[in-house]
Amino acid sequence: MWPRLLRFPLFWLGLALLGYVTTQGLNPAWAYERVGNGWRMQGIPHVTWLPAGVDVAFEQWGPWRMLVIYGAAWLTVCAIWVGFARRRSLQMLFIVIASNGLLLAGFGIAQRMLGNGKLFWFYDSPNAQFFSSFIYKNHGSAYLLLTLAVTCGLAAWYYLRGLRRMEKSNPSGVFTFFATCIAVAILTSYARGATFIMLVFLAICVVVFIAHQLLMKNTTRKPIVAIVLLLVFGFFLKTGMEALNTGEAWSRLKSGLTRQDLSLESREWATASATEMLKEHWQTGVGAGSFRFLFPIYQHRNPKLISTPMFWEHAHNDVLQLPIELGLFGVVVIAGCAGYLVLSLSRSFFWENPLSGCTVLGTSLLVVYGWWDFPFQCPAILITWCALGVAITSWTKLEEMNVRG
Fold first, then answer.
1. pLDDT digit string, tens, across residues 254-299
2. What is the bridge-based pairing of β-strands 38-43 and 28-35?
3. Quick check: 366 and 143 in contact, CB under 8 A?
């Protein structure tokens, strides 16, 4: 185990990032103080040439809480790399993730149909816009997007394997049904951004699948059969959406795209202020988990944000918030991790493997989704996204070796 771990670049890159966040926590530049019914951030002496953070209670986020979250993601990635060394174990991991998505989707749909306004039917959620087991519907739908990508990948992989082996039946239909249920759940979550990303993902998958069927040669199964099956499952998807009254989801998506409310526009204002914040703190960052405590300074510089007062816990733009908090060093480390995975996947021709292609597409689209939302501030999404990145890299390598062998 240890030789394999020590040769893993993400082990050292992740360790460097954790050390950087620890330095931010040990060198706070601002301290949280209660003032009457409000609060303020008080500047305190610190080592100016070292990365700094904020001194806040653990439950209020800040560097120490983010250290636990990043540490959990790092340990999970390392455990998968050294522990899941065979195709079968990775296959079981993907099946578990797909099954988990189905269970959460079913639970979320049940809450929509039979809910009483409480999370798990008995817990008063701090956020009225909860979905499934997530207290924020956008996070619930973003997590389901990851499981949808894996589920579609499994369906395609089993289908193509069945063609190669000339199997009479295989689990591809089961996973296609899983994907249908998860897609319906994302729609019923009323998360507009996730719904849009899901539609883009499914459109790309359908186009690639049809093109593959039309160009496929030397097979006893006619492409038209697969296309008819695809249309049948599309009919089931439409029936499920009508049964669950997803018209509201489409109305919300339309209102967001046509800017009938200020949701998207206010996020653009916040992005402009966050960009100004990044320009002043790009070298060392303001500290992991510290955005919410220092952003009010820049919020009050923007008249549009003052006119619609609200406390911005996050920038609603992870692509900006991460460098704001982690600075140049953090961005370089994250870019190094992503570069290693992309290079490894490219060397193994991941686009030739349906499970790898679908998962890479889904995880990449979630990064795009992070431009106008904050999915990676949810530990469940962050850890699952990181786990899928290293798991699909190992899977692609092992699949290539199996084909060559």
1. 555 555 556 778 888 889 999 999 999 999 999 999 999 999 999 8
2. antiparallel
3. no
Q: Using an 8 Å Cβ cutoff, are 391 and 153 in contact?
A: no
Which residues lie closer than 8 Å to 319 by C-beta, 6 or more apart?
Answer: 367, 370, 371
d(CA 251, CA 238): 16
Residue 119, beta-bridge partner list: 123
pLDDT in tens, 212-258: 777 766 555 555 555 666 666 665 556 555 555 555 555 655 555 55
* Sign of the four-CA dihedral 13, 17, 22, 28: positive
DSSP 247-301: HHHHHHHHHHHTT-SSHHHHHHHHHHHHHHHHHHHTTT-S-TT-HHHHHHHHHTT
Residue of 138, 105, 133, 136 whose CA lies nearest to 121: 133
Angle at 291 between CA 186 and CA 283, to 5 degrees: 120
Residues 360, 357: Cα–Cα separation, whole Å: 5
CA 26 to CA 360: how far, in whole Å?
37
Predicted TM-score (pTM) of the model is 0.90
Query: Tokens 């099946």, residue?
Result: 95
DSSP 58-81: GGG-SHHHHHHHHHHHHHHHHHHH
Closest CA to 142 of 201, 76, 191: 191
Helix 379-404 to helix 87-114 angle, to the nearest 10 degrees? 140
Q: Helix, strand or coil for residue 118?
A: coil
